[in-house]
Amino acid sequence: MNVISPEAHSADDSLPRLEQLADISQQLLARARALGATQAEVSCSEERGLDVNVRLGEVETVESTRDRGIAVTVYFGQRKGSASTADLQPASLESTVAQACAIARHTEDDEAAGLADPELMAREFPDLDSWHPWALQADQAVDLALACEAAGREADPRISNSDGASASTATSLSVYANSHGFIGRDRSSHHSVGCALIAGQGDGMQRDGWYSSALAREDLEDAASIGRRAAERTLARLNPRSMATAQMPVLYSPEVARSLIGHLLGAVSGGALYRRASFLLDSVGTQLFPDWFAIEERPLLRRGLRSTAFDGDGVATRDSSLIEGGVLQRYVLGSYSARKLGLVTTGNAGGVHNLRVQSNAGDLASLARQMGNGLLVTELMGQGVNGVTGDYSRGAGGFRVENGEIQYPVDGITIAGNLKEMFAAIEAVGSDIDRRSHVHVGSILVGRMTVAGND
C-alpha cells in the first residue's frame, strides 16, 4: 500500500480514468497478440481511499491511499503465463507482457487453461447503483470517528477503555478485457464507521464493538448510534461464566451465522472439488438442508455489496439458486474449475455475488424462545473446520439461554459437530438479517451440537 499525505477528493473523474484503464488493456492485448499469444486477458484496477483511526480521544493514524495494478495473462495454446505491474510507463507495460509470454513458453500444457468460451461473455451492463463516492475530508473523518468513540465511552461508567474507532471511505475502478473482444468496466465505492470498546477492570475486562458499512454514505448508521451499540455489546459480556459439557441447541447470531454459509461455499467451490478436498464431493442434487431452506444468488441486485454483470472471466452473471428445497442445485465454478470437473462455469470466477438465505422465522428473541434452553453464540474463535471431512470444532463466546430468555454471558467454551449433520439439523433462519456483508442471513438455529465447557 502506498501511503501519502491526506488530501481532498477532487471532482469525480472516474469515467475518464476508467477509459484510460480500458485503453491500456487494449494496448496490452495487442502487444500479446504481436508476441504470438493465441489468447490473452488483462485486469486493470485503481483504488483510492481515506482511513482514520482514533483512540481515547486522540488521532492515531490518517492514511490516504492510491493503489494501481495491471495483470496480464497470456496463453500459448494451453500453456499459461502471468505477470503484473503498477507502472503505467510504456516500457514497463511492454516488459510485463514480454515476461508473461516468456513464462508461458516454459510452462507445461494444462488442458483446462484458456479463456472462458466466447459465447458466455457478458453483453449487457446495467447500472447496478454501486458508485457513491464520498468527498470525505480528513478532518471530517476524524470528527466522525471521535464522535463514535465518545458516544460509546460516555454510555456507561463501566466502559473503562477503548480499542479505538475508525472511519473510512474508498473507491475502486476496474477493467477486465480479453482477446475475445470483451471489455468490462466496473466502479464501486465502500464506506465504514466502527468502534471497539473495553469494559470492566483487570482479569474481568471484556471487549466488543460494532461497525456499519455500506456502498453509499446515506446507508451508514449514525456514528453515535454505532458507539452506543458497541457499548451495549461490550457491557453485556461482563462477568461471563463457563458451562457444563452437554448436547444442546445452538443459536448463531446473524454476524456469526454467515460463517456457516461460508463453510458451505468453501465446500462447493470448484477449487476444493477438483482437488478432492471437500466433504461435499458429488453432492449436486443431494438434500443437505431441511426442505424449506433456500439460498439464492442475485448478482444484478441494485446497490448490492457484490453486484456485477460479469465475473472474473468476463462471463455474464445471472440470478440463480444455490440451494432450493434444501437440495444443492449446483457448484460455484469459474471457467477453469469447471473444465477441471468436466462441467460448465456458473459465472463465479472470483467468488459469489449477493447471496440471500431464506428466512422462515422471526427475530433473534423469537428464535431464543423457540430454542428454549441452549447457547446463543455471538463470537467464534479459531479455524477448527476440516474441509475434507466436515468436522467442526471452534472456540465460542455468547450467552446461556434458559426457558427462552438470555440469562448470562459465557466464554471459554467450544462448540463441535459435523457440518453435514449441522446443515441437516437447522431448525430456523431468522428475519434479523445482517446486511453488512454480501451474504444476507439472519440468525441460524441448529437443533443439536456438542457444547464443551469447564464446569
Verbal overview:
It contains 9 helices and 18 strands. Strands 1, 2, 3, 4, 5, 6 and 7 form a 7-stranded antiparallel sheet that branches. Strands 8-13-14-15-18 form a 5-stranded mixed barrel. It folds into 2 domains: 3-234, 2-Layer Sandwich (PmbA/TldD fold); 240-455, no CATH class. 41% of the residues are buried. It is globular. A hairpin with a 2-residue loop joins strand 3 and strand 4. Helices cover 24% and strands 35% of the residues. It is an alpha+beta fold.
Strand runs, count = 18
Structural class: alpha+beta
Output the CATH topology of the largest domain: PmbA/TldD fold
Distance between the termini: 47 Å
Order of helices and strands: EHEEEHHEEEHEHHEEEHEHEEEHEEE
The number of helical segments is 9
How many domains, as an integer?
A: 2
Strand content: 35-45%
Summed over residues and divided by their number, the pLDDT gives a mean of 95
Residues in helices, as a percent range: 10-25%
Assign the CATH architecture of the largest domain.
Answer: 2-Layer Sandwich
Work out the radius of gyration: 24 Å
CATH H-tier superfamily of the largest domain: PmbA/TldD superfamily
Shape estimate: globular
CATH class of the largest domain: Alpha Beta
Describe the sheet with the most strands: 7 strands, antiparallel
- Uncertain regions spanning at least 5 consecutive residues: 1-9
Draw up the topology in text.
Layout: E1 3-4, H1 14-34, E2 39-55, E3 58-76, E4 79-85, H2 90-105, H3 138-153, E5 159-178, E6 183-199, E7 206-214, H4 223-236, E8 246-252, H5 254-268, H6 270-274, E9 295-297, E10 320-324, E11 327-328, H7 335-341, E12 355-357, H8 364-371, E13 374-381, E14 391-402, E15 405-418, H9 419-424, E16 426-429, E17 439-440, E18 444-452
Parallel strand pairs: 8-13, 12-17
Antiparallel strand pairs: 1-3, 2-3, 2-5, 3-4, 5-6, 6-7, 8-18, 9-10, 9-12, 10-11, 13-14, 14-15, 15-18, 16-18
Helix pairs in contact: 3-4
